[in-house]
Amino acid sequence: MVATQERHATEAALAVLEEGGNAVDAAVTAAFTLSVTLPRAGALGGGGFMVVHQAEKGRTFAIDYRETAPAAAHRDLFLREDGTADPSKSRFSALVVGVPGNVAGLLHALENYGTVDRERALAPAITLAEEGFPVTKDLFDSLVIAAPRLFRDPAAREVFYSRFGAPRAIGETLHQPDLAGTLRRIAEEGVAGYYSGPVAEKTIDFLRERGGIMTTEDLANYRPVERSTVSGSYRGHTIRSMPPPSSGGVHLLQILKMIEPEDIGAMEFGSARSIHLMAEAMKRAYADRSVHLGDTDFVDVALAELLDRAYLGRRMADFSPRAVTPAEEIAPGDPFESSEGDNTTHFSIVDAHGNAVSNTYSINFSYGAQMMAPGTGVLLNNTMDDFSAKPGAPNAYGLIGGEKNAVEGGKRMLSSMTPTIVLDGDGDVFLVTGSPGGSRIITTTLHIVVNTVDHGMNIAEATNAPRFHHQWLPDYLRIENGFSPDTLEILRGYGHEIREMDAMGSTQSILRSGSWWTGSSDPRRPDAATLGH
After folding, report:
1. Backbone phi and psi for residue 507, each to the nearest 5 degrees, phi listed first
2. DSSP type of residue 414
């Protein structure tokens, strides 16, 4: 079964499974296809995380192919002369582009854990780039929104807009010949087809002309990393999720462990009591994120201490079931106390043997830095904004960063991406899930876990249920439409500032129901598809 955010990618990945390929083969096929059909999020010029479960071996592990900072990057890179953070430098300049990991990470997965060759895995993407596909309303709408900046880039303008400035029309065939050439080179040459040679040279020349600091050596030196997942138990299930440089797995587990002493299921979905409890746990986890998380290849992260139940019990010691704890009264915790980042995309895949892949990757903003290296067809990321430009200064998603996530050459920037696999008591896959959504990725993934485990929802119910989010700062509870007005009034009585805002996330999830696999693509974004047998 395959669940992705775009139908062509789902169909391409399912065809690989039907031919006898495994979950990793299908995942790599889906990811390269999305680089063509979901350009605002799936571009080759980004990076991400993959969690893989090998059923026969009973092994679950992570592949980290997050972008890295160029070697010349330094902690003051995005500061003005007066020492304040300069968002214009950290979001849309040529300095924002991290060394991309998508191609290296996906090929690492395929070559080490897949069964098909590169040519088969990339064939659908190459065909769709060369022969084109019809522009959907979703793609058209995203191009309208991105036009003020994306249209200024000559290479991107040639691909996505008419000479009069209008996006390619709905139903018009979108051809991407330069991207097809890049994909063909990758299929033929592997990693070298992207990280050295003409594609690399064109990318670096383009960035250097605009004041960037990335070099051909940065590209040549990029390597994905295999890591152990963060793991924890929750109501008889085992949660396996992404470790740092993702903050997602750590804080998903923190929140689950903070709410586990209470019977969420008995509170009923959408009750003021359950929302209040989960929101207060969210606040404490996001406060910890602001200080304690970073790239463990560069800084120490107290993973065991942050996930210790005694520590999390202390974090909730001042929780009141009928009153808000204001954000200014919640400081990041001390795990050694002596009392003892919207444009990302996610897909989930399970094959006939019970192997599973949960994969989330991104170029950060919609269309990333909104720059395309001429002659490559590749949109470039702006994930350097995910570093802390200055400790205590918020990034574009309002997340506060700390010293451990300061800019440093070669370092991976902190992320909220939370690809997650949940195992049952026998160690078999129960749930595969994840989502895009910037700072809301963690809480969106949390909702799918709680809805299925605590509330016993099927995967369609869990996906469609309304969501809420709190990230400590700014101090308000973000709510989707769909909750009872009476519930919201009770929450206001507890002291919550309620803001009803746009829909959150785009989960692509697969759930085992008895002997069947069931899947659901989030209706919050169009054109997604779940297919399987």
Report:
1. -70, 140
2. P
> What pairs with residue 350 in β-bridges?
356
Largest CA distance in the chain: 67
CA 51 to chain centre: 12
Percent of the chain with pLDDT over 90: 92
d(CA 363, CA 365): 6
d(CA 290, CA 388): 10
Q: Catalytic residue at 420?
A: no
Say which DSSP state 22 is in.
Answer: -
Residue of 364, 375, 344 whose CA lies nearest to 156 = 375
pTM: 0.96
Cα distances (angstroms) measured from residue 69 to each of 11, 75, 406, 413: 35, 11, 11, 8
CA angle 86/92/98 to nearest 5° reads: 100
- 3-class SS at 127? helix
Q: What is the torsional sign of CA 201, 77, 417, 138? A: negative
Question: Bridge partners of 433?
Answer: 420
Q: Which domains does the chain have, with CATH numbers?
A: 2-226+344-405 (no CATH), 227-343+416-522 (1.10.246.130)
Structure tokens, 446: 């949390």
Which tens digits make up the pLDDT trace of 159-189?
999 988 899 999 999 999 999 999 999 999 9
Catalytic residue among 10, 344, 444, 463: 344
Alpha helices in 22-151 (DSSP H): 23-37, 87-91, 102-113, 118-131, 137-150
For the chain, the straight-line distance linking the first and the last C-alpha, in angstroms and rounded, comes to 7
